[in-house]
Write a structure and sequence with these properties.
Layout (H helix, E strand, L loop, with lengths): L18 H17 L3 E2 L5 E3 H8 L4 H6 L1 E4 L10 E4 L4 H10 L9 E11 L11 E10 L4 H17 L5 E7 L6 H12 L8 H9 L13 H6 L9 H17 L3 E3 L11 E9 L5 E7 L3 H4 L7 E7 H10 L12 E5 L4 H16 L4 E3 L6 H11 L3 E5 L1 H6 L1 E6 L6 H5 L1 E4 L3 H5 L1
Helix pairs in contact: 1-5, 1-11, 5-9
Bound molecules: histidyl-adenosine monophosphate (HAM).
Length: 430
Amino acid sequence: MPEQYRALQGFKDILPDERPYWRFVENTAAEVAQLYGYRRIETPLLEETAVFRRTSGEGTDIVEKEMYSFEDRPDKDGHRQSLTMRPEGTAGVVRAYIEHGMFKLPQPVKFYYMSEPMFRHDKPQAGRYREHHQFGCEALGESDPTIDAEMIGLLYQVYRQLGLKHIRVHINSIGDRNCRPQYLEILKDYYRPLLNDCCQDCKIRFYKNPLRLLDCKEPQDQPKIARAPKIADYLCEPCNKHFTAVKRYLDLYGVPYALAPLLVRGLDYYTRTVFEFTSEIDKVALNGGGRYDGLAEILGGPPTPGIGFGAGIERIILELKRQGIQPPAEPHSRAFVVALNKTPEIKNAVLQLVADLRHADIKTDMSYGDRSFKAQMKQVQASGADYALLLGEDELANDVVTVKNQHPEISESEQRGVQVKRSELIAYLK
Ligand code: HAM
């Protein structure tokens, strides 16, 4: 017996039965993004490794442990480039913005991306996969706090239009290159005497990426985090003013928010506003985002402020299911053509009818092969089609089709079927 294969661990097939959820989220999110003036961008799944390494930052979990990187085939000089399968969407969008000179356009330039696959060699568990898909928005070229509020307001509107309840945004400001270095020194002073008692990862974070100390999930380190100095108390005046304005504008957008003084993010490029939406019930992050005013420069572009978010589609769908929200049903077939016997003439007539109806934009199905009448009628039922269209010798001779309404509450006479002229059938079904 040949070996049977399964999808890789942490990778999932999205089967047709799941599509209504995906379509619901994708359509709702795209509609709202467009309403707010965002335009769709698609960037390649593969980029030079440096694009992610330099932006996400050394010392982050993504760069240290999770990237799917490999050496490309040698070019004509025998040189092999290191490539990486996109772990997140922002770096590629900013790379494209610079590459296409979009800083010369009227600013800000506002993008969204939809269901883009992202790859992280994470430990697979509920809501955490090695391939996941994001809906994201990025706005480049504007530092005004109105756009921070717009970004958060947009996402809140998406969740509301999906019908999700108990969704809360947690916001924080993590300062900028003026005030954050001083805060990090204060944070390190606080942690230094506690370090012996910290988890192994925190001992490394202390030297490599101290802000991430606040993101440790180990139980032993939680009391230390709770008592740590909060960055909000050390923001410089411009950062403080910016954050105050973001909160004021959020009120105008009608977004209820919670201040989260310990919220830091898993990527290094953030400055000032950071935010995460979670479901109040299971506390899982539906999305993450924030401002990244220094990112374009890291990728060789002119100084360009930016802000954005990425929302995990799988996580949103899990939450929809948890809250019992049904997506709109997929349209089923209008007609299902049934052959009353399987002579070559009837088979031809069935196929011709199916083709005519499909060309007339009527969703039509049929059964294949030589199934019995009873088996075909079972298929009609399973398909959910509105009408069974019966074709036999009598129908052929009289140029009619027997139409049986499949609605469950139909009268008995209608269940037996009515004969409709072949030439009038399309009008009848429409
Ligand atoms: P992130 O927080 O790393 O941010 O990911 C964004 C969202 O993607 C998460 O909140 C979660 O919903 C989903 N996600 C992340 N990893 C996984 C996983 N392993 N399995 C399932 N879902 C996952 C970013 O990626 C930033 N690029 C967001 C951003 C855009 N910031 C500014 N602009």
